[in-house]
Design a protein that fits this description.
14 helices; single chain; mainly alpha
Length: 298
C-alpha cells in the first residue's frame, strides 16, 4: 500500500497543502523571487544524497540536459515565479483554493496534448462547476480581506500558474523512461531555483537579512516538502498507465487542508460563507472527475 499510486499522491498533496502557510510566513521577511529561488535550489540539493548510483545517473542527465533544463524553466522557474507573485498578492486561504483548482486546467491541457486523456461531457461539466467556484471566490474576495487593486491581478497570475503546472506535468508525463525521476526533480529544481534567485536579485534587490527564526523554519520546511513532494509526483507521472488528469484529481486535498491551515495559523485569515461555498464547488468539480474515472475503471 505504501507504494501505491493513490497513497503516494495523497502524501504529496498533504505536503503541498502546508506550503501556503509557510510561504506567507516567509514572505513577511523577504521578497518572493529570492525566497522561492533559495527554496528550490536547496530542495534540489537535498535530493542529491538520495540518488542511487549518482555517477551513472549523471551520464543520463548529460544526455538529456535540454529536457531537464526545459522542465526546470517551465516547472520550477516560470510556474513558481507566477505562484509566488500571485500568492504574495492574495490571502493564504484564497491562494490555496485557487491553486487547488489546478486539476481543472490540467484536464484541459491533457485533452489537447495527451492521447487517450480526452475531455468528455462529465469532465466538461466538472470544469464548469470548478470555474464557477473560482468566480465565486474571486467575487467574494473583499469578504476574505482581499482588497486593493493588486488582488485581481494576483488571481489572474495564479490561474496562469495553473496552466503552467499542466504543461510542466505534461513534459514529465511524456518522458516515461529516459530520465530517472530523482535526477529530473533535483537538477530541474536547482536550475529553476537559480533562475528565480537571479530574477529576485535583479528585480527586487538582494535581501541580506538578518532573518528571524520563523523565516528559517519556514524556508527549511518548504525546501523539504518540495524535495519530497515533487520527487514523489515525478515518479508517479512516469509510471506506466498513470494518466495526467487522473493523478492530478487528488489535488483536491490541497485547497481544503491549505485553507484550513491558513485559517488556523495565519492572523487576519478566517473562514467565510462565500469562501466555503467556492471551496465546495471546486472540490465538487474534482469529485465529479473522480467519479468519471472510477466508472471507466481507470
Amino acid at each position: 500500500m505504501l507504494n501505491s499510486t493513490i497513497f503516494l499522491a495523497i502524501i504529496a498533496c498533504i505536503l503541498w497543502s502546508t506550503a501556503f502557510v509557510g510561504i506567507k510566513i516567509g514572505l513577511q521577511h523577504t521578497t518572493p523571487f529570492q525566497f522561492a529561488g533559495i527554496r528550490f535550489f536547496t530542495s534540489g540539493l537535498l535530493i542529491l544524497p538520495f540518488i542511487p548510483n549518482l555517477k551513472e545517473k549523471l551520464v543520463v542527465a548529460r544526455q538529456n540536459i535540454r529536457k531537464i533544463l526545459l522542465v526546470g524553466f517551465i516547472q520550477s522557474f516560470l510556474q513558481y515565479a507566477f505562484f509566488y507573485k500571485g500568492v504574495d498578492m492574495v490571502p493564504g486561504s484564497l491562494g490555496a483554493m485557487l491553486i487547488g483548482s489546478g486539476p481543472i486546467f490540467i484536464a484541459i491541457v491533457a485533452h489537447f496534448f495527451m492521447p487517450g486523456d480526452r475531455l468528455n461531457k462529465r469532465k466538461i461539466i466538472s470544469i464548469l462547476v470548478g470555474l464557477t467556484g473560482i468566480i465565486i471566490i474571486s467575487l467574494g474576495r473583499k469578504q476574505m480581506g482581499a482588497v486593493g487593486p493588486l488582488v485581481g491581478l494576483g488571481i489572474v497570475i495564479l490561474i496562469i500558474n495553473n496552466f503552467l503546472t499542466g504543461f510542466g506535468n505534461l513534459l514529465v508525463a511524456k518522458d516515461k523512461k529516459q530520465i530517472p525521476p530523482l535526477i529530473l526533480s533535483s537538477f530541474s529544481m536547482i536550475f529553476g531555483g537559480a533562475l528565480l534567485f537571479i530574477l529576485g536579485v535583479t528585480t527586487e534587490g538582494y535581501q541580506s537579512g538578518p532573518f528571524p527564526l520563523e523565516y528559517w523554519l519556514s524556508l527549511g520546511w518548504l525546501s523539504f516538502l518540495s524535495a519530497a513532494a515533487i520527487s514523489i509526483w515525478y515518479t508517479l507521472l512516469k509510471r506506466p498507465g498513470v494518466k495526467l488528469s487522473t493523478l492530478n484529481m487528488w489535488k483536491f486535498i490541497i485547497p481544503v487542508l491549505g485553507a484550513v491551515l491558513s485559517w488556523l495559523i495565519l492572523p487576519n485569515e478566517h473562514p467565510t460563507l462565500i469562501a466555503v461555498a467556492g471551496m465546495v464547488l471546486v472540490g465538487l468539480s474534482l469529485v465529479i472527475l473522480n467519479i468519471n474515472v472510477r466508472k471507466r475503471g481507470l
